[in-house]
């Protein structure tokens, strides 16, 4: 297979970009990383993702792909060694189901809590907690997730990126969703996940992330009014 | 002997996505209608404890939920008559548009789900989203899948077969042929495909159902505002 030119448009503060970086690292793919300033979106970002204007965008021989779960599946399709998704079709469907649930019922809802206040924020916080209850109860019951110590695959990337970022979002926005006493299984898994070298090696500094989320929250709330 | 069951609801476009895929692949299955409003079956609640909704596919007793996830499963289990492109980049584009449809569904269906100001906002945004879908998703192709239908066509099948019935039930038009000519051409082509033509719910029954549901939603909306 010939060499392909791989670029990744991203931002240091995005857990969605981090997902793609982990996937590329698992496959040993060399790529050019291009940091985007989201306050001042570059012509290249607007060119490669005209619809959503968001990162991450993976560019393969000049052709863009957006949306982190789509990008990860693409990476798995392109480079067949070290599979990221399970091989078995049924296990793949379970991984995809939970990845969708985590993004729709946790990532998105926590984002709503980050960018709202008062009753609207309370509602989002409550919904996030309910989603964590489902994850604690249903996702961990069948040992669907591989033990974090055994390496990472698709679902671990999706859940792990979200959980890694969550504390900084909570602190930046001033709300609490994850109570480690209430969710012991998720908590244990998260603790192990954070010890993985692929995860540990270049996480953004916590205080820098907190500060970022404080600022972006302030900015968005001011814009709403 | 492979046993395939589909838990569904007669009017659901999400269930029909799965039906179309199974029929396209010539997979024999047993269909079980769920009484969603009165009493969901134990099988449904056991098979989809997280969302408690249809469609759920059961293959040799193992449950798969979420229509888009089920579509990918069907494509992988029965790879003949492919519904996704072989090329990884084209596959990624197909997945991108399916995700677009899922992510934007609350806005696209907002004209039916919501009322007042929120509904107006949704309608305005939905019209823009349909333009994006037409221009970037469909482009110059006959179908989203290219010359033949594929998973993306199934995913947007509700626009072809359900939208105008819902528009009539609500009294709001989202999709005008003049402003979305290529999308309307796709609608006509999609509805003509024999698989689709022979597998769509009865229009009169749908209209009456959606009118009734809309009224029920309106009553809930009004009473929640009054409190």
3D architecture notes:
Chain A contains nine helices and four strands. Chain A is of the alpha+beta class and about 220 residues long. Chain A has a four-stranded mixed sheet with strand order 2-1-3-4, covered by helices on one side. In chain A, β1 (about 5-10), α1 and β2 form a beta-alpha-beta unit. In chain A, α1 packs antiparallel against α6 (about 155-175), α4 packs antiparallel against α5 (about 120-140) and α4 runs parallel beside α6. The N and C termini of chain A lie far apart (about 55 Å). In chain B, α9 crosses α12. The mean pLDDT of chain B is about 95. Chain B has a four-stranded mixed sheet with strand order 2-1-3-4, covered by helices on one side. The radius of gyration of chain B is 18 Å and the shape is globular. The longest helix of chain B has 24 residues, at about 205-225. Chain B contains twelve helices and four strands; from the N terminus they run βαβαββαααααααααα. With about 230 residues, chain B is of the alpha+beta class. Classes of the chains: A alpha+beta (about 220), B alpha+beta (about 230). At the A-B interface, β4, α3 and α4 of A face β4, α3 and α4 of B.
Name the features.
heterodimer; A: four-stranded mixed β-sheet; 4 strands; 59% helix; B: 227 residues; four-stranded mixed β-sheet; globular
Averaging pLDDT over every residue of chain B, what do you get? 96
Into which percent range does the helicity of residues of chain B fall?
55-70%
Strands of the biggest beta sheet of chain B: in what spatial order? 2-1-3-4
Query: Which outline of chain B best applies?
Result: globular
C-alpha termini separation of chain B: 56 Å
Order of helices and strands of chain B: EHEHEEHHHHHHHHHH
In short:
The complex is a heterodimer of chains A (225) and B (227). Chain A is built from nine helices and four strands.
Detail the topology: elements first, then pairings:
The complex is a heterodimer of chains A (225) and B (227).
Chain A: E1 6-10, H1 15-27, E2 32-35, H2 43-48, E3 57-60, E4 63-66, H3 68-78, H4 89-114, H5 118-139, H6 154-173, H7 184-195, H8 197-200, H9 206-224
Helix pairs in contact in A: 1-3, 1-6, 4-5, 4-6, 6-9
Chain B: E1 4-8, H1 13-24, E2 30-33, H2 42-47, E3 56-59, E4 62-65, H3 67-77, H4 88-108, H5 110-113, H6 116-138, H7 151-155, H8 157-161, H9 163-170, H10 181-192, H11 194-197, H12 203-226
Parallel strand pairs in B: 1-2
Antiparallel strand pairs in B: 1-3, 3-4
Helix pairs in contact in B: 1-3, 4-6, 9-12
């Amino acid at each position: 297979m010939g060499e392909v030119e791989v670029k990744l448009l991203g931002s240091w503060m995005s857990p969605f970009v981090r997902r793609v970086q982990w996937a590329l690292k698992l496959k040993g793919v060399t790529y050019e990383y291009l940091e985007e300033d989201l306050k001042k979106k570059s012509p290249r970002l607007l060119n490669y993702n005209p619809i959503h204007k968001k990162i991450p965008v993976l560019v393969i021989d000049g052709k863009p792909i957006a949306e982190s779960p789509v990008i990860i599946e693409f990476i798995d399709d392109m480079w067949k060694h070290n599979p990221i998704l399970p091989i078995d079709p049924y296990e793949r469907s379970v991984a995809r189901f939970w990845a969708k649930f985590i993004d729709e019922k946790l990532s998105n809802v926590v984002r709503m809590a980050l960018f709202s206040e008062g009753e609207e924020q309370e509602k989002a916080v409550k919904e996030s907690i309910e989603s964590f209850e489902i994850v604690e109860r249903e996702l961990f019951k069948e040992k669907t997730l591989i033990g974090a110590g055994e390496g990472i695959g698709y679902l671990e990337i999706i859940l792990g990126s979200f959980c890694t970022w969550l504390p900084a979002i909570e602190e930046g926005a001033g709300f609490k969703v994850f109570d480690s006493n209430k969710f012991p299984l998720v908590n244990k898994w998260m603790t192990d996940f954070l010890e993985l070298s692929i995860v540990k090696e270049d996480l953004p500094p916590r205080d820098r992330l907190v500060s970022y989320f404080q600022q972006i929250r302030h900015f968005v709330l001011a814009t709403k009014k | 002997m492979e046993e395939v069951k589909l838990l569904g609801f007669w009017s659901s476009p999400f269930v029909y996505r799965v039906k179309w895929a199974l029929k396209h692949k010539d997979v024999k299955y047993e269909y079980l209608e769920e009484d969603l409003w009165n009493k969901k079956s134990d099988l449904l609640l056991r098979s989809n404890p997280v969302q408690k909704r249809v469609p759920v596919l059961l293959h040799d007793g193992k449950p798969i939920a979420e229509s888009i996830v089920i579509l990918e499963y069907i494509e992988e289990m029965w790879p003949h008559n492919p519904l996704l492109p072989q090329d990884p980049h084209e596959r990624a584009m197909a997945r991108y548009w399916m995700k677009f449809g899922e992510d934007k569904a609350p806005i696209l269906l907002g004209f039916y789900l919501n009322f007042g100001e929120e509904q107006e906002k949704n309608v305005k945004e939905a019209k823009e989203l349909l333009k994006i879908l037409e221009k970037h998703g469909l482009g110059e192709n006959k179908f989203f899948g290219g010359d033949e239908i594929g998973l993306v066509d199934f995913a947007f099948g509700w626009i072809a077969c359900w939208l105008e019935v819902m528009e009539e039930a609500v009294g709001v038009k989202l999709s005008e042929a003049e402003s979305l000519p290529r999308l309307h051409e796709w609608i006509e082509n999609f509805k003509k495909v024999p698989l689709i033509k022979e597998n769509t719910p009865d229009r009169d029954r749908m209209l009456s159902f959606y009118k009734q549901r809309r009224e029920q939603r309106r009553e809930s909306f009004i009473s929640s505002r009054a409190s």
